[in-house]
Design brief:
It is a single chain. This protein is α+β, with helices and mostly antiparallel strands. The protein has four domains: 2-59, Beta-grasp domain (Ubiquitin-like (UB roll), Roll); 66-238, 2-Layer Sandwich (Threonyl-tRNA Synthetase, Chain A, domain 2); 283-524, BirA Bifunctional Protein, domain 2 (2-Layer Sandwich); 540-631, Rossmann fold. The strands form eight sheets. An eight-stranded mixed sheet has the order 16-20-21-28-25-24-22-23. A five-stranded mixed sheet has the order 2-1-5-3-4. Strands 6, 7, 8, 12 and 13 form a five-stranded antiparallel sheet that branches. Helix 2 (65-86) packs across helix 3 (117-129), helix 4 (141-151) packs antiparallel against helix 5 (154-162) and helix 12 packs across helix 13 (429-445). The radius of gyration is 31 Å and the shape is globular. The termini are far apart. The structure holds one RNA strand.
Length: 635
RNA sequence: GCCGACGUAGCUCAAUGGCAGAGCAGCUGAUUUGUAAUCAGCAGGCUGGGGGUUCGAAUCCCUUCGUCGGCUCCA
């Protein structure tokens, strides 16, 4: 009997019944293709499984996401195998492929240290050399339980016990190593060509802090040495862009033992900050926002009223004034509620868009602090929009437009997520459903694709989050739009409707930059310290060639200053090359070299940090161009 | 908070139980310089803090603070 199979090149072929994926795989591999997996009818397929009749077969290599996953998953088994050989008593956790690599969680009898990774890597190389065939083995539930019980693999037993009754329990075997795994895998261990163990970390079993902490070994794997080295070089390159390093080198900010998580902004960083907030104010005025400022410390009773006392207390700082309890604000909303409530509103007053650059303090766990990306005190570009229920869709849409306006100025790409009702939530399920579907409707009407994040909403309402991607492909939550039917109730907010009766307004909380500190970190890394001219702490450095041209250099410097450019005069007794190098290292966008020629002609010799020497130009012409570049916020 | 690693001059790093050092940055002087580093000299330290072991500690041990990589959490 023959079976018919449709291949990925569109051709149909027939094979004897019982032909496996492996047979086809061998046939393809013999053609010199570097395959890692086979997809049957779009599903990852075990290589030893016989092909079903009329199936569609595709072959994938490392370049496809599925191929990379299979490849790296096999690498994770090689890792576990090596660890098991070196530490026979170790208990296995899980070991999936992740973006750019793999990890595997282990419960060691005695904790290992990162020095031990070398020996493990060496053992992995041996296993690769042995070219052990990787075979799938299916077991009955009883068989599997008995097997892993005998091996003392308590974590695997936990996984098996939670599998649905009818699930096929499959294991993969290579040499003397067997692991519970759905697969599929590479045909043999010799195919795992280039890998490196990168770090050792702690990780709670199944991500739950109440569970024991396992040791997680991270690594990465590629089909060849070149690709591995390229990846490692990319990591090195990213390190150079690290905002903590650039923050120090460019004198933007600092962090001190005296205030962990409380960043100090230096003049250079503050210049960028001010530009960002100036731009923010301008755009918000245009978009019809007012701006307020509310106190940092407010009485406990306010936090009880807002619900923060019940829902956010672990993250708050407290103090005592005149024998009364006070809290440092962790959010700006209660302050904004008080401002709104301080006068009567007609429906004609709404929507009221009230913005605040609000400084908030949150007690984050010490282990989570990270430069400016994760801090304990930060400034939110907050705003609360108070509106009629009928205005919600339009207002949410307006905020989305504003988000896009800001992010595109910086050249960021972003991803949208919709977060729904969490466990610790205020309000009824019905209100939440209503609010959530409303947000969904706005996103859908604008054709914005989004990811659903079940149970991740704020305690007072569902939210739309905007995640910006940084240069390393990590994403950070910045903008968020949170719908709130709770706060208006808690604070008994009202407006007088057309009917002369009191009604309840709806509130949205939103930030666009998110946290100024995080945004600054992101911008530093995004631009690698080469800020666009509108943001650059120093926009131009005037470099006289000799003492003879110091006076002319000063004239140029003064003129540029009179146009409000941020400019420096480098009249130190140094060679031109030295001054240029220094300006380049500080990533100053423009260097203006002035020597005898320029001082006679009234020109400046313009050098751009990226384009190099641009030649001499009339000073007025340069000023005009610089103004335009700043005005347009050119990237 | 938890797991692992680390903490030496402003920065990057040496010194592994026996006198704490280099490069860059800084300061002083010479040099008058044309598109990424001129030369010479000087200064810079309670080796994160506290305790211990030792004749002797940057080095070994304990503790505490901080930092880094993760986990959990989040703007």
């Amino acid at each position: 009997m023959q079976i018919k199979v449709k291949l990925d090149n569109g051709k149909e072929a027939s094979y004897p019944e019982g032909t496996t994926c492996m047979d086809l795989y061998r046939e393809k591999a013999a053609e010199g293709k570097n395959l890692t997996a086979v997809l049957v009818d779009g599903e990852e397929c075990d290589l030893n499984a016989p092909l079903p009749e009329d199936s569609k077969v595709e072959f994938v290599d490392f370049e496809s996401p599925v191929g990379a996953k299979v490849y790296r998953h096999s690498a994770s088994h090689v890792l576990a195998h090596a660890v098991k050989r070196l530490y026979p008593q170790v208990k296995l956790g899980i070991g999936p492929a992740i973006e750019n690599g793999v990890y595997y969680d282990f419960d060691f009898e005695e904790p290992i240290s990162s020095d031990d990774l070398k020996a493990i890597e060496k053992e992995m190389k041996k296993i690769v050399k042995e070219k052990l065939p990787i075979k799938r083995r299916e077991m009955s539930r009883e068989e599997a339980i008995a097997f892993f019980e005998e091996k003392g693999e308590t974590y695997k037993l936990e996984l098996i016990n939670e599998m649905p009754e009818d699930e096929v329990i499959s294991c993969y075997e290579q040499g003397d190593f067997i692991d519970l795994c759905t697969g599929p895998h590479l045909p043999h261990t010799g195919m795992v060509k280039a890998f490196k163990l990168t770090s050792l970390a702690g990780a709670y079993w199944r991500g739950d802090e109440n569970n024991p902490m396992l040791q997680r070994i991270y690594g990465t794997a590629f089909p060849n040495k070149d690709q591995l080295n390229e990846y490692l070089a990319m990591l090195e390159e990213a390190k150079k862009r690290d905002h903590r390093k650039l923050g120090r080198d460019l004198d933007l900010f600092s962090l001190h033992e005296e205030g962990p998580g409380f960043p100090f902004l230096h003049n250079n960083g503050n210049v960028i900050w001010q530009e960002l907030t100036d731009f923010w104010r301008q755009e918000h005025r245009r978009a019809g926002y007012e701006e307020i400022k509310t106190p940092l410390i407010l009485n406990r009773s306010l936090w009880e009223q807002s619900g923060h006392w019940d829902h956010f207390r672990e993250n708050m700082y407290f103090t005592n004034i005149d024998e009364q309890d006070y809290a440092v604000k962790p959010m700006n909303c209660p302050g904004a509620m008080l401002v709104f409530r301080s006068k009567m509103h007609s429906y004609r007053d709404l929507p009221r868009r009230i913005a605040e650059m609000g400084i908030v303090h949150r007690h984050e766990l010490s282990g989570t602090l990270q430069g400016l990306l994760r801090v304990r005190s930060f400034t939110q570009d907050d705003a609360h929009i108070f509106m009629l229920p009928s205005q919600v869709e339009q207002e949410v849409g307006g905020v989305i437009d504003l988000m896009d306006r800001f992010y595109s100025i910086f050249g960021f790409t972003y991803r949208v997520e919709l977060s729904t009702m969490p466990e610790k939530a205020m309000g009824t399920k019905d209100m939440w459903d209503k609010a959530t579907s409303l947000l969904e409707r706005v996103l859908q009407s604008r054709d914005i694709s989004y990811r659903l994040n079940e149970g991740d909403g704020a305690f007072y309402g569902p939210k739309i989050d905007f995640h910006l991607e940084d240069c390393m492909g990590r994403s950070w939550q910045c903008g968020t739009i949170q719908l709130d039917f709770q706060m208006p109730e808690k604070f008994d907010l009202t407006y007088i409707g057309e009917d002369g009766e009191k009604h309840r307004p709806v509130v949205i909380h939103r930030v666009i930059y998110g946290a100024m500190e995080r945004l600054l970190a992101l911008l530093i890394e995004h631009y690698g310290g080469r800020f666009p001219v509108w943001l650059a702490p120093v926009q131009a450095s005037v470099i006289p060639v000799t003492d003879r041209t110091h006076d002319y250099g000063r004239q140029v410097y003064e003129k540029l200053k009179s146009f409000d450019f941020r400019v420096e005069l480098d009249d130190r007794n140094e060679k031109v090359g030295y001054k240029i190098r220094e300006a380049q290292v500080k990533k100053v966008p423009y260097m203006l070299v002035v020597g005898d020629k320029e001082s006679e002609s009234g020109e400046v010799a313009v050098r751009h940090r990226d384009q190099g020497d641009l030649g001499a130009e009339e000073l007025d012409a340069f000023i005009e161009k610089l103004q335009a570049e700043i005005e347009e916020k050119r990237i």
